[in-house]
Design goal:
Layout lengths: L4 H13 L16 E4 L2 E3 L8 E12 L2 E11 L4 E12 L4 E10 L4 E11 L4 E10 L4 E4 L3 E4 L3 E5 L1 E5 L4 E12 L2 E11 L4 E4 L3 E4 L4 E4 L1 E5 L4 E11 L3 E11 L4 E12 L4 E11 L4 E5 L3 E5 L4 E5 L2 E9 L2 E15 L4 E10 L4 E5 L3 E4 L2 E4 L2 E7 L2 E16 L5 E14 L2 E19 L2 E18 L2 E7 L4 E6 L33
Antiparallel strand pairs: 1-3, 2-3, 3-4, 4-5, 5-6, 6-7, 7-8, 8-9, 8-10, 9-12, 10-11, 11-13, 12-13, 13-14, 14-15, 14-16, 15-18, 16-17, 17-19, 18-19, 19-20, 20-21, 21-22, 22-23, 22-24, 23-26, 24-25, 25-27, 26-27, 27-28, 28-29, 28-30, 29-32, 30-31, 31-33, 32-33, 33-34, 34-35, 35-36, 36-37, ...
Length: about 500
């Protein structure tokens, strides 16, 4: 009696199960593949020549790689397999790959997974439609779009490589990283699964709820929430833009540090802060600047440049609101086209738009020099309108290298129109030394003392004087003028210390 079709299938399957697959694949030196089990086997040369087909609960083994599927074609000579339906590959190190289809090259141990591919290890999952897995090098890569998922991060890219031994992922082309605290857009990056460090290798933007980072080189630690970026590095918040050679950001603490050619633009106050080192606390709105720091403030018709050895900018919160303040410590100097200053320290407040100078302050306006123990420069509508000089206040106006008009008092309030001194009110113990002109020539010296004096100016020269009480004074002819009566005690003209251009604010002269 002849065998039935089903008996033949069973018989061939029995024989095949008892035969190691390496006896079928005769290629010398080839990697052995062992068949562990299958429900049945068929052979149809019209479907696949030189191939046997195994059906149902198929299990194959190659070294530490075990493969599962519902159906597989085994090519005897080439030592290759084609697996279909519920395909699974398991490595000894717990890496698993699932797909609808697998073509496996046994000799070179290269697996090509297609359709609904999922690669899993104990930390990472890769989703893609096409994935090649080099089992010799333990490297998997996709080339037609993929998604990587771990416990905290989702990553999308056109191409990606997974170096399983090193736990390193490499991606390029349209890379997007999604994290609960940020999003990253780049073209090339590396991701170390063990350390949680993302390394960028091209134009990259990192977006969070409060800030935006841009750079072309750098790294981000997904565990510590820290970033170091360089090469066109830029950090932006809703109120500030920070540009530097290198920027470090602690996202947890909302602290940024910048190194080299730092520029911090504060849109709220129209201020630009520049230095070679800046530390900014976004929560406190506090900024520290060192290493050649200076502040730039653009006015309607002028630009102010302010420098000191150290600068601090912070947000001061009071009942009426929050206002930015800036403090400049040690050897502070200011230069602009219309006004120059120097003092040991300078404070600036956006609340009242007042610049305050402390410890030996000096201000120069054209041919005038103003000194006191403390000076306030008041701004209105982006321009200075008043100067307040407190304690030992002195204004000197230069005629030539020897002769100076001088106004002295306990307090002097100066009022400006179109950045020209219009009038000055001298309060308590007002004293004057000024020259009377005759056809622009010095003809006499007038000295006066009064409790309060109001002076009007024209082209920075005394034009009219109003005494609020009967003054004491005298007029001396020029022949009687000498060094004993032409200067107030302790008067000193220090025009040599005056910043005459932008670069001078960085040079302190004693």
């Amino acid at each position: 009696m002849g065998l039935s079709k089903y008996s033949l299938i069973f018989f061939l399957g029995f024989v095949f199960f008892e035969t190691p697959f390496n006896t079928i694949a005769q290629s010398e030196g080839s990697t052995k593949i062992t068949l562990k089990r299958a429900d049945s086997m068929v052979y149809n040369e019209k479907v696949e020549s030189n191939a046997r087909r195994l059906i149902g609960n198929v299990i194959l083994q190659q070294e530490d790689n075990r493969m599962y599927c519902d159906s597989v074609y085994i090519f005897h000579v080439e030592n290759n397999i084609k697996a279909y339906s519920r395909v699974q590959l398991v490595k000894a190190d717990s890496i698993k790959v699932f797909s609808d289809y697998l073509f496996h090259y046994g000799d070179i141990k290269l697996s090509q997974f297609r359709r609904n591919v999922v690669l899993k290890d104990n930390r990472t999952t890769i989703y893609t439609d096409s994935l090649n897995y080099d089992l010799n090098r333990n490297v998997a890569y996709y080339f037609n779009g993929g998604k990587i998922v771990d416990s905290t991060t989702i990553l999308l890219s056109n191409t990606g490589y997974y170096y399983a031994n090193e736990k390193l992922l490499f991606f390029n082309q349209n890379v997007v990283v999604e994290h609960e605290n940020y999003k990253m857009f780049t073209d090339t990056l590396k991701y170390n699964i063990n350390t949680g460090v993302v390394t960028i290798e091209g134009p990259t933007s990192i977006l969070s709820d409060t800030a935006r980072l841009y750079a072309e080189k750098g790294w981000y630690n997904t565990k510590t929430k820290q970033t170091l970026i360089w090469q066109n590095a830029r950090y932006e918040t809703s109120s500030q833009i920070l540009v530097a050679d290198t920027i470090f950001v602690n996202h947890k603490e909302q602290i940024a540090e910048a190194f080299g050619n730092v520029s911090l633009h504060q849109s709220l106050d129209s201020l630009i802060l520049s230095a070679h080192y800046v530390r900014h606390n976004h929560n406190l709105m506090h900024t520290l600047m060192t290493k050649r720091p200076y502040i730039t403030r653009i006015l309607s018709n002028d630009t102010l440049y302010l420098h000191g050895e150290q600068m601090v900018s912070f947000l001061d919160t009071i009942d009426s609101g929050a206002f930015r303040k800036a403090l400049v410590y040690r050897k502070a100097q200011l230069y602009s086209k219309n006004i120059q200053m120097r003092a040991d320290s300078i404070a600036f407040s956006m609340q009242d738009t007042i610049i305050r100078l402390f410890n030996n302050p000096v201000i120069w306006l054209e041919n005038m020099q103003l000194t006191a123990e403390m000076i306030e420069l008041h701004f209105k509508n982006g321009d200075f309108k008043e100067l307040h000089l407190y304690n030992n206040a002195l204004i000197a106006s230069q005629h030539d290298s020897v002769h100076f008009d001088q106004i002295k008092g306990n307090t002097i309030i100066c009022y400006f129109e179109n950045r020209k001194l219009h009038k000055a009110y001298v309060d308590r113990r007002a004293e004057l030394i000024y020259y009377i002109l005759d056809k622009d020539a010095l003809s006499a010296l007038n000295t006066s003392v009064c409790r309060n004096i109001l002076l009007y100016f024209h082209e920075n020269q005394i034009d009219r004087i109003v005494f609020h009480a009967k003054p004491e004074g005298r007029v001396l002819p020029m022949d009687d003028v000498n060094s004993s009566n032409m200067y107030f005690r302790h008067f000193r003209w220090i025009g040599n210390l005056r910043p005459k251009k932008f670069d001078d604010i960085f040079v302190w002269q004693d």
